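Cross-check.
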Amino acid sequence: MKRTYRRLLILLLINLFISSVFAQSDPLPSWNDGEVKKAIIAFVEKTTKEGTSDFIRKEDRIATFDNDGTLWSEQPVYFQLFFAIDRIKAMSPQHPEWKTKEPFKSVLANDMKGIIASGEKGLLEIIIATHSGMTTDEYDQLVTDWFKTARHPTTKHYYYEMIYKPMVELLAYLRAYEYKTYIVSGGGLDFMRAFAPEMYGIPPDQIVGSMGKVKYEFRNGKPVLVKLPEVDFIDDKEGKPIGIHKYIGKRPVLAFGNSDGDFQMLEWTTSAPGPRMGLIVHHTDSLREVAYDHQSSIGTLDKALTEAPKRGWLLIDMKKDWKKIFSFD
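Predicted model, tokenized:
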């Protein structure tokens, strides 16, 4: 019940934030007045003006956003992995075998290079070990509690402070014009549902993510959903259009990403007729954030960066287009 009241309060604050933003002449105050900002505003205005050929009905105003690297930071590794690492350390007394078994050995030794070197197989082992065996409610509480105290290893700020201020403004701006905003991310669905409603104002039913299998059973005389150590769906690359089709049911008209993992989502969005827009957050600011693209082991932006001009996708140059990146700038 307390959590319900808290979420209602958050939604109220979000609405007040939206009102304050649009009381100003500038709907996106943390954006510099460049071509990208102008293009976004022009697109929204033309698609919401009745009686024009570009008008999009309210029920079709779908905007999808990747999360990691698009709505918040993702370096040096995805934040969900940091959560999993902390869980491995907390669980290690019950698993003495982890001291000599990779990738858990590298986790306990704080060897990030060793963790990354374990590849997808090793990362999946870490996720399965820390994201299964408990009920969905227990997992939600673990993630919620972690966000209260966990801090980013480089900036020392709380992870919930690492969201991009310009993108939060953009979400509010789109919703003010009755666009429905969705997260479509390779991150864990249950992980994002624990924080996204309060951070972004996006409700749980508007989040599409990777999922593990769950099982319905009784524990202590009560029905629960138990997270199983099995993968159900990976919402990345080709999986993103599939996830959108399965869980949203409509093709977006706006799609935002930052890496090659978002390529197919942008491709699928912009290939349909009518007004469409694909945008990529390009991490060009090495001072306020981290600069990376072609060669990065996290959030690699290679094919999509090359293809963007050919396909009419806009590049959001983090250094040039954003006045502020984080609220604490």
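Residues 2-23 form the longest helix (22 residues). The longest strand covers residues 207-219. Passed to J.P. for a second look.
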